[in-house]
TrEMBL record:
Annotated protein name in UniProt: shikimate kinase
CDD domains xref list: SK
Organism per entry: Rhynchospora breviuscula
Cellular localisation: Plastid, Chloroplast
Xref: HAMAP family: Shikimate_kinase
GO biological process: amino acid biosynthetic process; aromatic amino acid family biosynthetic process; shikimate metabolic process
Keyword annotations: Amino-acid biosynthesis, Aromatic amino acid biosynthesis, ATP-binding, Chloroplast, Kinase, Magnesium, Metal-binding, Nucleotide-binding, Plastid, Transferase, Transit peptide
Amino acid sequence: MEASVSFSLKSSYLTKNDTKFGRKCTGIVRASSLQLGFQRGQTVDLADLTRNRVSIKSRNPPLKISCCHKQPAGTEIHNSFDDALILKRKAQDVLPYLNERCIYLVGMMGSGKTTVGKILSEVLGYSFFDSDKLVEQAVGIPSVAQIFKEHSEAFFRDNESEVLKDLSTMHRLVVATGGGAVIRPVNWKYMKHGISVWLDVPLDALARRIAAVGTASRPLLDKESGDPYTKAFAKLTALFEQRSDAYPNADVRVCLEDMASKHGLSDVSALSPTAIAIEALLKIEIFLAEKVAVRNS
Ligand SMILES: Nc1ncnc2c1ncn2[C@@H]1O[C@H](COP(=O)(O)OP(=O)(O)OP(=O)(O)O)[C@@H](O)[C@H]1O
Ligand SMILES: O=C(O)C1=C[C@@H](O)[C@@H](O)[C@H](O)C1
C-alpha cells in the first residue's frame, strides 16, 4: 500500500542569487506503508522523520547468500506471481542486514531509478523519495525543466546537493537520485551514509524508453534536434562519456546486460522492473555479506 505523507523541509537551500536562506518547503513523501506512524496527508517535520531512526547497532550474524531462482533460465522473470514471492523473500533476507540504512539509486536518465525504487521501498517497508521532486519543492518551481530555464543547471545542482545532504541524516529511505547527481564528489559523501546502487542500462535501451515518453521533462535532452530516439541517444552518449567514471563509485552495480545474458535473453527490455529489483537486493546482500566478512576477519 502506498500513502502520501506531507512533510516540511526546514534546511537552507540556495536562492536565485546563490545566497543561503532558511525556508520552509513542503514536500511529499511517498511512504510504502503507514508504518512511519503518520496519518495520510499529515504534515510532519523532517526532524520527525529522522527521529524515527532506530540506532544502528551491530547485528552481524553471518549472512546467508541464497538465490531462489529455481526455474529454467528465462522463465522466472516473466512470471509475476513467482517474482513477487522471490522479491518478498529476498527483501526479508536483506532487511536485517541493511540496519535501517538508506538505499540510493543512481543511473542515467530513464534507467528506472523511480520505477525500481518504488518497488524496493514497498517491499522493504521503506519510504520513497525522488531527489528531483525534493529539489522542485525546495525551490518552489514545479519542474526540473523550469528550474534549468529560470535559473541554471548550476543552481539546480547546488540545491540537489543540499537535498542529498538532508537525506543523508535519515534512515529507511529509498532515494531515486537525479541522473547527474554522481558528478559531484560531495554527493557521494552524502550517499555513502547508505548503500548506493547503480542501475546500469545500455544507452540504446534508455533512448528507446525516453523516446517513448518524450524529452520535454528532461532539459538536458530537450535541446537536441532530430527524432526523439536519435536525439536522446546522441545526448545520452555524450553525458555517459562524462560520467562513466562516476557511476562505478556506487557500492553495487546492477547491469542489465549481464542480467539478460544470465537469463538467456537477447534484449534487456524483456527484464521487468521487479526482476531488476530482485537483482538489486541480491547484489546488496552480497555487498553487505562481504563487508561483514571483512569486519569479522
Ligand atoms: N525495466 C523496465 N522496462 C521497461 N521500461 C522501464 C523499465 N523501468 C523503467 N521503465 C520505463 O522507463 C521510463 C523511465 O523510468 P524511470 O522514470 O523509473 O527512470 P528514472 O531513472 O527515474 O529517470 P529520471 O532520472 O529521468 O527521472 C519510464 O517510462 C518507465 O516506465
Ligand atoms: O542526467 C541528468 O543530468 C539529469 C537527470 C534528471 O534526473 C534531472 O536531475 C535533471 O534533468 C538532470
